[in-house]
Specification:
Helix content is about 40%, strand content about 15%. With about 1100 residues, it is α/β, with parallel strands linked by helices. The chain starts with a strand and ends with a strand.
């Protein structure tokens, strides 16, 4: 007998001595590893045979049910040990697994038979060796691995193996032979073993490696997920008309939204402009309506027609067959308690009976509101929370916004609060976070504030992402979906969806007011506007002090009685009117003139009333005319809240009021006289537009494309342009025009053509709107479209390639959204053009002038309505707007680039989970794939250079996670052949996107690339280059961790520098890798 301790005497060395040519070996053990074969390869090649008996069920066909998974996992581990046990990680990390497996499989076919114990009976392990007359038994043996051979260190405190000689060993030979012959308890699994070893060196389809990666990272998600939170395909929604119209990236979003709504009750879809959020949302609505749920769409009034179209039984509704039945109400309806909206009586509406609320332009709710029980104090946000979401049935909330974050993370928090009913604990209990939602957002805001003060060079997105913690990403990943245009272009197949058109540099046109000499100019008008007091809109300011108490009781002095006070409302109206006069002037002289005339008429009527003095006569506050305002301003509660305020003249300091009214009367008369000479013939801007249209028609950007959209913020300007130009264009070119300004404000030059918005847009953009299907008998087309912002969102008009902003909207985002109508994925146009009309003045003067006007209008009431404050005299905001307007003169800016740093793009991992869920249904055996597999894919441009993407698992459980790597313990690193890191382990979203792009859809190995790789590496034997890259990848993880630790010394919340570290390659296990050639 001999004692082997694997320290002084190694089992490997002893076996090497006793194994001789012609030896016969029998092993009973739990594990078999190809690396153990490699250690004794020379001796094992000489033996006659090896019989191997797995002591527990291994490679048997019966699989345990999910609830018996604890019995299945050990079997899986035994089977996986073929390609290296948990202690042979280092060997697998040498990347020679493929070559070893190939040699081992060849040897097994010639020399080895495997059987497995199929009972639950316990068996000890041992090795029998017969060499000639000599018989040896080694026992006890756990497995045939490099650890058991003594080549690698395991986790045993000690190892004591006895080598027994005959005659003691004879009993072990008898036991083994008896077991081997027992066909009931021992089944032959040789074919299965060979098949599994073969899979290690088989050339792999890239798609398989992508899904192996996902399986390893997200397998716990699969175990937690139930059918209840996955889209139920039995509803038939995937056969619906809307589903058939979606692109792959929209389907991905729709499925992920349903999953998030079921899990977390809410979701924000923040895809960028031009990616079809409306259609994605319609697919989600169809899913819930298929399950007999009630759906409410809350949108700004300007988008009403868009949403109404898709639910009506009309020939020109492309998804009429889906019979959608959701209700459509407006944001402002939340501030009303009576009247009708879209045929729905608001005083009798059962707000609490909606299962799903879809909020379009949810950023309108980003300022939140007080959670107050007294209903009279509610703003729209609070009413939505209290009466729609909290009461009645459990309500899910889907929010749509291309700009969910302005410059504060609280914007996002307030919107998310709608999903968890304002009670953070509801969501916190479902998330893998370690702090409260409030803390998460406070920390994120602090990080952003620090980041925003950095120098331009340092203020990169990567820097900001590094400063935000794990909990923030976890929260966003759970409840948001946000993809940018670049994301879609890079990570989805453009063969299916087409490409984005190329953007020409914007054309900037500066125009004076008129071509007449000596006519009033912008600056002179601005000075006169500044002199207006607009007292027609603030009669309560003139109520006598002795009479004030009675009016306060009736109309409110504070938030106790109305949603906001009449005095506040009047302040708001003053602000709005003064700003609006400026906007109207920038839009067109015609629109400016109409507004001046309307105000003048109201002033003259009020002056007449005061002059024919009757103390008991009552005056009313100046009425706002919708047509004077753009659609964003109309979405404020100033237009839907507040009673008709009536004040007796005898209760007022009417003489002071009369003085102020006469002052404004004179200013307005003066202004009207000054612009009287500017008729359409002498309207410089109008005539410049006509020249532009003529040039475009005569010199198309894309062959044969004569289509043009002209946007203005104001319906009066749109009507003016249509009336002045449509006949001329038809007479000169035979082209039809149309105008669209909202509900009833449409006209068209085609006789007898319906003027509903959908008909007009279908005739204007026949390809994108499927005119051949919905209007097959209508031959006429519209080539020139004048429109307000009622179509600046949610419309696909990509047949057109030329868009004109006749006025520059004060919100730069609106300009991008307008351009998004034609700047869309799948466009048939090679190039598209944006044209911006600017006032004829220097941009600095223009911005400063706005600032001067705005300083007089600090507004206090907007936050009480839950609306955005449309005017902020914050210097930073003005500076931001100035920078963005400057950029808009030079380029077309993507919306995510306008955000000044905050973007929730490229953070979510949910689409990968959904990928895995659908794949695993058809391929349930991913858990049996060997570790260490690889595939070869082609490189693609400078962004995806030759190199390797390594998928690693950290096996040092003590490593400090510090919530930096969102997918810990897994680490993804893309390292180029030259050693530079393309994407590091703190960018898992980016790396997974790259993997998806390179691998998905490639269901067969790329033969030519495999051949080149095998030649380069001698069929996997010479992997030095790739081993070096693996070492480089791990070094990059260590370096980044150390950087992060140093940073943490200077961060609130404690340091990570003194905690455990990543040591090196031995701390990681190679899961799989993709070679980019």
């Amino acid at each position: 007998m001999r004692l082997i301790d694997n320290v002084n005497i190694l089992l490997k060395d002893d076996l090497a001595q006793v194994l001789k040519r012609g030896s016969k070996v029998a092993i009973a053990a739990a594990y078999f590893s190809i690396y153990a074969y490699d250690e004794l390869k020379t001796q094992l090649e000489q033996i006659d045979e090896l019989r191997f008996l797995f002591t527990s069920p291994t490679f048997t066909t019966e699989k345990a049910k999910k609830e018996l998974r604890e019995f299945y996992i050990p079997q899986l581990n035994r089977e996986r040990s073929l390609y290296g046990s948990e202690f042979e990680v280092k060997l697998r990390n040498e990347l020679t697994q493929k070559a070893i497996a190939k040699e081992c499989a060849d040897w097994v076919r010639r020399k080895v038979t495997f059987k497995s114990n199929v009972t639950q009976g316990e068996m000890g392990g041992f090795i029998n060796v017969q060499s000639g007359e000599e018989r040896y038994t080694y026992m006890p043996i756990n497995g045939f691995t490099t650890v058991d051979l003594g080549s690698e260190k395991g986790n045993n405190i000690y190892t004591m193996i006895n080598r027994l000689d005959a005659p003691v060993s004879n009993e072990y030979f008898r036991i083994f032979n008896d077991l081997w012959r027992d066909s009931e308890k021992m089944h032959d699994v040789t074919a299965e073993v060979i098949d599994n070893i073969t899979s290690v060196y088989r050339e792999n389809p890239p798609e398989l490696i992508y899904y192996i990666t996902l399986y390893n990272i997200f397998s716990t998600f699969l175990e937690d997920v139930s059918d209840d939170v996955l889209p139920n395909e039995r509803t038939g929604f995937m056969e619906s008309a809307i589903w058939q119209k979606l692109y792959r990236f929209q389907k991905d979003a729709a499925l992920a939204i349903i999953n998030k709504l079921e899990l977390y009750n809410g979701c924000i879809l923040a895809d960028s402009v031009g990616l079809g959020k409306t259609f994605t949302a319609l697919a989600v609505i169809k899913y819930y309506e298929s399950r007999n749920k009630n759906v409410l769409v809350l949108c700004p009034k300007k988008l009403s027609d868009n949403w109404q179209t898709y639910k009506l039984n009309l020939l020109n509704n492309p998804i009429a067959s889906d019979r959608l039945r959701y209700d459509v109400l407006y944001h402002t309806d939340l501030s009303r308690t009576s009247g009708y909206s879209n045929g729905i009586p608001l005083d009798r509406l059962n707000w609490s009976n909606y299962d799903l609320v879809v909020i379009d332009e949810s950023h309108n709710f980003r300022n939140g509101g007080q959670d107050i029980e007294d209903g009279r104090r509610e703003n729209r946000y609070s009413r939505l929370l209290n009466q729609v979401i909290r009461q009645g049935v459990k309500t899910k909330v889907l929010m749509l916004s291309a700009t969910p974050v302005n410059n504060r993370f609280t914007d996002l928090r307030n919107q998310l609060a709608l999903a968890y009913e304002g009670e953070e604990e509801q969501l916190e209990s479902k998330l893998n976070i370690k702090t409260s939602i409030d803390t998460i957002f406070r920390r994120a805001q602090a990080a952003f504030n620090t980041w925003s003060k950095l120098d331009d060079k340092e203020r990169t997105t990567e820097k900001l992402l590094g400063m935000l913690d794990f909990d923030f990403f976890e929260l966003l990943d759970s409840v948001t979906i946000a993809r940018s245009r670049k994301h879609i272009e890079r990570y989805y197949s453009l063969e299916e969806i087409g490409k984005f058109p190329e953007r020409n540099k914007p054309i900037s046109i500066r125009c004076g007011l008129s071509d007449l000499p000596g006519v009033i100019e912008y600056n002179e008008i601005y000075q006169k506007l500044s002199a207006l007091n607009l007292s027609i809109y603030s009669p309560t300011h003139y109520i006598l002090a002795s009479k004030l108490e009675g009016y306060e009781a009736r109309y409110g002095t504070d938030m106790q009685h109305t949603r906001f006070t009449q005095a506040d409302r009047e302040s708001g109206v003053l602000v709005l009117m003064r700003t609006n006069l400026l906007k109207r002037l920038e839009s067109s002289v015609h629109a400016f003139r109409l507004t001046l005339e309307r105000i003048l008429k109201q002033i003259e009527e009020t002056i007449d009333l005061i002059e024919s003095f009757d103390a008991s006569r009552q005056v009313e506050v100046g009425v706002l005319n919708d047509a004077d305002f753009d659609l964003d301003d109309q979405n404020t509660d100033l237009f839907s809240v507040g009673k008709n305020v009536q004040i007796k003249i005898g209760d007022m300091d009417y003489l002071s009021w009369l003085r102020d009214l006469r002052h404004d009367h004179n200013v307005l008369k003066d202004l009207l006289e000054g612009i009287k000479a500017i008729t359409p013939e002498h309207d410089q801007k109008l005539n410049r537009l006509l020249e532009l249209i003529r040039h475009k028609i005569n010199h198309p950007l894309n062959p044969g494309n004569k289509k043009i959209i002209v946007f203005s913020a104001f319906s009066d300007t749109v009507e003016y342009l249509y009336n002045q130009l449509s006949d001329r264009i038809y007479k000169e070119f035979g082209l039809h025009s149309a105008m669209v300004t909202g509900s009833d404000g449409s006209k068209v030059t085609i006789p007898k053509l319906s003027t509903d918005i959908h008909t007009i847009l279908t005739c204007f953009s026949p390809m994108s709107k499927d005119k051949h299907l919905v209007m097959p008998n209508e031959e006429a087309e519209i080539d020139l479209l004048f429109a307000t912002d009622c179509i600046s969102e949610g419309q696909n008009l990509q047949d057109c390639d030329f868009l004109v902003n006749y006025d520059i909207h004060w919100n730069p985002v609106r300009i991008i959204q307008r351009f998004g109508r034609i700047d869309r994925i799948g466009s048939k146009n090679e190039v598209i053009q944006l044209v911006n009309f600017w006032p004829d003045m220097d941009l600095d003067d223009y911005i400063n002038l706005k600032a001067r006007v705005e300083t007089r209008m600090k507004i206090s009431i907007m936050t009480s309505t839950g609306d955005d404050n449309p005017i902020s005299d914050d210097k930073g905001d003005l500076q931001y707007r100035k920078e963005q307007l400057k950029r808009l003169q030079e380029e077309v800016v993507d919306l995510e680039e306008m955000s000044g740093g905050i973007s929730i793009m490229d953070l979510g991992l949910n689409e990968f989970r959904m990928d895995l869920v659908s794949y695993i249904k058809e391929n349930p055996n991913l858990d049996q794939t060997p570790l260490g597999l690889h595939a070869i894919v082609p490189s693609s441009g400078p962004d995806l250079p030759p190199g390797v993407i390594f998928v690693l698992k950290n096996v040092n459980t003590e490593i400090n996670v510090k919530n930096q790597n969102r997918i810990h313990p897994f680490y993804l690193v893309y390292i180029a052949d030259d050693g530079h890191v393309v994407s590091n382990h703190l960018e898992p979203k980016k790396t997974l996107d790259i993997l998806r792009h390179l691998c998905q859809g490639r269901t067969e190995p790329i033969v030519d690339l495999c051949r080149r790789f095998n030649e380069k590496t001698s069929d996997g034997r010479k992997m030095t280059v790739y081993s070096g890259l693996l070492q480089g990848a791990v070094t990059s993880i260590i370096d980044l961790n150390e950087e992060s630790d140093l940073d943490s010394l200077f961060r609130p919340g404690g340091t990570t520098a003194l905690k455990t570290h990543v040591g090196g390659l031995d701390d990681f296990e190679l899961i799989c890798f993709v070679v980019v050639m």
